[in-house]
TrEMBL record:
Regions that span the bilayer: none
Lineage of origin: Bacteria, Bacillati, Actinomycetota, Actinomycetes, Propionibacteriales
Organism: Nocardioides humilatus
Gene assigned in the entry: polA
Official protein name in the record: DNA polymerase I
MF terms in GO: 3'-5' exonuclease activity; 5'-3' exonuclease activity; DNA binding; DNA-directed DNA polymerase activity
Every 5'-3' exonuclease domain range: 4-269
Family (UniProt): Belongs to the DNA polymerase type-A family.
Amino acid sequence: MPETRPRLLLLDGHSLAYRAFFALPVDNFSTATGQNTNAVYGFTSMLVNVLRDEQPTHVAVAFDVSRQTFRLAEYSEYKAKRNKTPTEFSSQLPLIERVLTAFSIPFLKAEGYEADDIIATLVTQALADQTADMEVLILTGDRDSLQLVTERSTVLYPMRGVSDLARMTPTAVEEKYGVPPHRYPELAAIVGETSDNLPGVPGVGPGFAAKWISTYDGLDNVIAHADEITGKKGEALREHLGDVIRNRRLNALVTDLDLAMRPSEMALQPWNREAALELFDELEFRGELKTRTIETLAGEEPMEEGGFELEGRILGGGEITAFLEGLGDQVAGLHVRGSWAAGSGAVDGVGLATADGQAGYVDLAGLTPDDESALAAWLADTTRPKILHDAKGPELALAAHGWRLAGVVSDTALTAYLAQPDQRSYDLADLTLRYLRRELKGEGDTDQGALFDDGADVASTAMLYARAVVDLSTALEGELDRAGGSQLLTEVELPLVHLLASMEETGIAVDLDHLTSLEQHFGDEVRNAAEEAFAVIGKEINLGSPKQLQVVLFDELGMPKTKRTKTGYTTDADALQGLYVKTEHPFLLHLLRHRDVSRLRQTIEGLLKTVQPDGRIHTTFNQMIAATGRLSSTEPNLQNIPVRTEEGRRIREAFVVGKSVDGIGFECLMTADYSQIEMRIMAHLSEDKLLIEAFKSGQDFHSITASRVFDVAPDDVTTEMRAKIKAMNYGLAYGLSAFGLSQQLGIEPGEARGLMDEYFETFGGIRDYLGGVVEEARRTGFTETIMGRRRYLPDLTSDNRMRREMAERMALNAPIQGSAADLIKVAMLHTQRAIEEQGLRSRMLLQVHDELVFEVAQGEREALEAVVRERMGGAADLAVPLDVSVGTGASWHEAAH
DNA sequence: TATGGTACGTA
DNA sequence: CGTACGTACCATAT
């Protein structure tokens, strides 16, 4: 370790907080309980940044006590012009002190003096101690402190807002003001200081003041030679000499206060992580500042005794049984080394660890038959509690080895997702750093660790990961519990992991012949469309290039300009349709045709690439992507297979019932979907009488709502009326605007506005509900689904209109989309449970948000349909019935209804 | 070779 | 100027 020079960081708490208070918008920074936090936030943010960037060894913060200072006693007008400190500000000072206490940073006050004086005293003491050889940094928004700048002490002065700091060294001060630091107060005395209500010499700015000070070598000589200065400015100086002398007396900082602490006692101490994070929760500081704080202060924490040593070892042949028995019913963290994708995987080894420090690593190579069976039994034992990080992949890998995984009582990735559903990823190392202030170095790292990897490193890394999972789950579950999300974890998301794994493992059969012939067909269509398009314009271009298209459409063919995009004018399908209506140019038709068929071909090619040797496609369901709680599907995405057009639906013909396995034959596919699930949830949440009645009537929903809005008999609802209300019904849950509605229906914005008014007049409960959702979310900072799934929307209080309105639409949508997601997840679990209880061999294959796809075992069609109707229909007890429609057929297309 | 923008498929 | 996703391609920067 190189000897580091001690570095003392002193902050002027009052001036920094005051700056933050005016730099940050109040309405963006306040808690659900109405406590303003902009000053605390800004101060904390600056503090953390400077701790991170400057790496001080000693820190302290100085505060003003009150306005009763010796300066006021001497000059009754001191700071008199300053507005009365707003309570919104002063109420935050105790919070800042709590932050400092949690960070273990001392703060000082001195009756009758200002923070500046405390800092001046400490700087003087620090610099006087020759043996300590201390370097001093002063973070303050008060320019008076510039007089403290020396070769060994630097002022960091916030430039704009709270982000940029100017580094005021002696050279910097001289460059900016034209005088050396110790003469700065002399300059200030001449110029005056408005914020302190210290008037200077009128008409004299810093330039002239600096010139005088250097010409006469100091303020004393300027005063002595005041008679020699000519002109208006000289006259003004002579008239205001008294003010100047008074100013100089008042802006001199006191350097000999009797303080409770000396600089040497201010060595940085370990922070109180728990208290700090709890306080952050209370202040509703999330995300970036929290992460930055943890990353910055983690290094200051004491290493636990013995660091993070695990009593771990590589378990040799014959040792595994005893080791597993030794774990007893303790919760074990598991880290599976291996790979997984497309519903399968492979295991290389398994790291295990418990909270008491026991750990072991099992290398799959070289297991004795006894080891194998002991491990298999332990893994499958529901009474042996286990925690994993993102268990689905490991479960697939273990399954591929023939091992069943059961008794998973928690999953750290899922817990983190439920606690903060808007994160992009839930990487174990990131979470460990954030929540446990521990650096997890691992196999994936590109430092020496990976290059010189040997068996021991792999094993110890795996054990370390396993241990991290155990510790992390404690921290995360605390956070989730405080947010009321524990039930959602244990009763929905956690059990769903196993079901999703089995759906991925099963996959869905495809008709390769059909798929390849479709690819052929659409390939021909693409070529035809392209040829015809080229024939019209007399040359060949890349029809997939928006840039080349723009040249042809707007320059060469001179068509009217469409809506602007960042890079030019849009050529999307809507715009091309619009252009065709105006120009009837045949090129547009061929272009649109080309778009359609190339997309279909591309979809098919994507699917073909993912067909596994078993003739099935095994998608991956991601449970931790969508902030609303929905699943997503990748490689390939089976949740966006075309269905709207006739040609698109031909792709669905390629998803078929599979061949028999293990002697069990399958007779067909079955699809079961909820109808109008989101509107039903809205009816439930809003308790709108009329809407609930509409659903209970069981009639065509869009027609019945249209008949209400237009006040006509259900039989007199025209197709036009129905179409308009259908668009409204669908748009409502997305935060549709009158403009958006007019756009979609091709009607005047005024008419759309009237339609919406009429709709909300009819369904007042909906209007009240939607307004209430946003209002409450703005107050609490989050929305909530029927099952308590939260989504945090800090932008609801943004002063950026775009961001705020975006957040408002998210707030409208999240409870509805999210509740629907809760509901179908419960339905999946209940359906699967019933399938198992009744010993059915049929299998759940896919989930497409409001639809489930099953493979029906021979002879089980009726039984499965009954199960599905009962379990999906009964997934929740809402104010309206849950309507489920079911269809069967040899392909996904035929099973649609 | 990675990234952003555009476009478009689903609920 | 309607939410939530994933994928593909082009164009641009590296």
